TrEMBL record:
InterPro entries in the record: Myotubularin (IPR030564), Myotubularin-like_Pase_dom (IPR010569), PH-GRAM_MTMR6-9 (IPR048994), PH-like_dom_sf (IPR011993), Prot-tyrosine_phosphatase-like (IPR029021)
GO cellular component: cytoplasm; membrane
Biased composition (Low complexity): 770-803
Protein name per its UniProtKB record: Phosphatases II
Organism in which the protein naturally occurs: Gigaspora margarita
Residues that bind substrate: 280-281, 344-350
Amino acid sequence: MDLSKIIKVENILLERGRNAVFGTLYLTTHQMIFRSPGQKDEICILYPLIHTVERRPPTTDPKVWPLTIRCRDFNIYTFSVEIQDDATDVFNKIQKLTCIGSIKQVYAFEHMFEKKFPSSDGWSVYDVLQEYDRMGVDNATGSWRFSNVNRSYTFCATYPRILVVPAKISDNVLNHASKFRSKNRIPVLSYLHWHNKASITRSSQPMVGLKQNRSIQDEKLIEAIFRSNIKTLSERGSQSNLIIDARPTANAMVNVAMGAGTENVENYKNCERKFMGIDNIHVMRESLGKMVDVIHTADANGLPIKKHYLDKSGWLRHISTLLESALVIIKNVHIFGSHVLVHCSDGWDRTVQLTSISELCLDPYYRTFRGFQVLIEKEWVSFGHKFSDRSGHLSNEKYFINTASSTFNSVQSKFSKQSHVREISPVFHQFLDCVFQILSQFPTKFEFNENFLIKLHYHCYSCQFGTFLCNSEKERMDYKVTSETYSVWNYFNSHKEMFINPLYNEKANPNDNNDDCVLFPDEKIVKYWAGLFGKHDEELNGNNDEIREEKVEGFAARIRWRSNSPISRPASPNVNSIVDGNIWKDDTPSPSLPFNKHVKLYEDNPYYDPWKNNSNKMGNNNFHTVKDRSMSNEASTTKDKLTNNDFNTIKDRFMNNANSLARATISIGTSAYYNVTSLAKSNFDLGINETTSPVEITNNTETQNLREMESFSALSLSENSKNNNSVTSNSNVSTLFTESRSPRQSISTNFSSYTSFGRRESFPSLGIKPSSVPSSPSSRVNSPSSDPTSPLSSTSSRSNSLSKKFNSESKVSSPLSTPPISSPPATTELLKDLPHPLYNVDVFSSP
């Protein structure tokens, strides 16, 4: 295919957001151009701006072949081609023109011969000697000097040719110290503060390793830096100097195992070290990708952008961390007059972010239109930020996904090894975002406006100018970038009126006593940079309270319903509806339940009501169910369904507890009976009523009744203690019934006498029949009365005789009636004042 030939494809539908227009597409050597008859402006897409291209399967009605292009400036274009061969040619040519092999093939090297700019001093904006002289670096002072140790880039390939180092340190010491720093990036001067001559220096990480290596030359170099402003310290006082490690502590420890690491502050005088916890380039890349996906998904569906989805990307958290770290440097330099050394791993990503943000806030000159250009040239371009690698100027064929050809190619393209993206990261983008945050907080302190920052972000990827090409100053010299391309500052200085802030009101030359020149940004006041995505501010930073919308649309975590929750949810069950039985059944689907799952009613269920009578549903599978309408996306787990046996076990446990309560009540009643009879006898012995003889419990029926009652209670308590793993002994239960009796009234309660009754479930003398006593799980299958080997069968004749005798002699037929007492009316009235402990009825009255 002849790449120099321009391809022209007509009648193409361009979709951008919710808008669509027909036109003609032109593919030139360096850019795509789309022209529509009804549009004045044409759309130009430079190939380095393309991030991914996806060729999708054809649509059915009408049949067209769509081609989706996602750009690094966050625009998405979809071109629909009517002819399949044309769609194939467009896809293949874009791929070949984008995936170039050399930086010399980008548009910047041809743009110089196509257009001229009124301003032509872009490459001379930054002069290293002039800029450091402005800061106060002068060889005559004896504190700092300019070194040519790197004049041929052999000392450090990623550093500039001229370095500023302490005057007391020779080049020989620098050569030895470079071996202790990663990529030979030694500590050098980046900024000298106008107020107190405190410095900001930058370097890479030390090569400490597991053996805890050290370098005397590196220690002497840093000591000389920290002692450079002793004679000019501010009267406010000074604290110890600071080494800023921009990485998280864990990342630094991992680098120790790889032979690098961080400084041992015991080897450096009068300093301390702080970790800033800024994540690496891979975390930042993923964070930006998540944020962009949320915006594009909302645009594709025509829905508003949800801020809480943007927050999940963590982008603002990273921006806030950068501002907070820069604030530490600003305070130490301006307020405490301390020297600060900044580094990360190699010193060209997180390090340059912190130094440039700090200098922007410390020096008002860098907030001017030209001063900001000097700051970028000094900190980013000359000190070797890897613009080509971080911006992905040389694309890869894996960014081109052809899902229309075959399923195999689609899977291979999407799940192939992603090694081509490992070096790409929005480092410069984050710096511009931080500048936008500070500009928003201090709108009168900057000479340039937001549009200036947006255009800078665009040209960082466009490769239209040579400023952001290559990875170092040495590479730009090798490719002759300064002589064969335009500087991006030529463009900005030629259109300065477009980028001036009308609110600017600041002096470029600060006074020594003017603290207002220094900015202290608030890291907590951050917002999404809506203008960079072509959005209005309220679209990305609108209402934070979206709980109602989340519930309607089913997104994010829902608020779990509780019966005492003040939040009213439609169709949610409440206490009244559960008591009334108005809850969902198995055949009632739940619209809000994920995957239409049902949760069985059991005691671990938050909706379970143990006081509701569900006895009519106990014996079959028609259990009441409820829908868990409040499961969140993060904690939505399906509870195991209960089987019939599990439910019956729970039912039996509940019934046994109720039986134990009833039996314990009978025991208390028995004890109360003995106390009453003892009181009555005492009254007779004192001569209250001399006509009545003392009460003697000699009646065999009465004795048998009490024996049965005690047997009933003791056995039930013993059973319950076994079922519930209780440690209550039989002797304790026996003592419960005998403590309150006098020797004359005590009845033998030895449990050996109860063995003749066995597992008693029938007490005719008390009116309790087998059907009225719930069975325990161990005796539910076969009744003891039907078992010929049961001890109860051997005593059935005795029970029957006791029942007949009791029924003939007693006039009380209540199941809880007590033996009659022959006593005068006064004693009867006294006993009636004692209520029954469970039912609160007259124990002497008939039912």
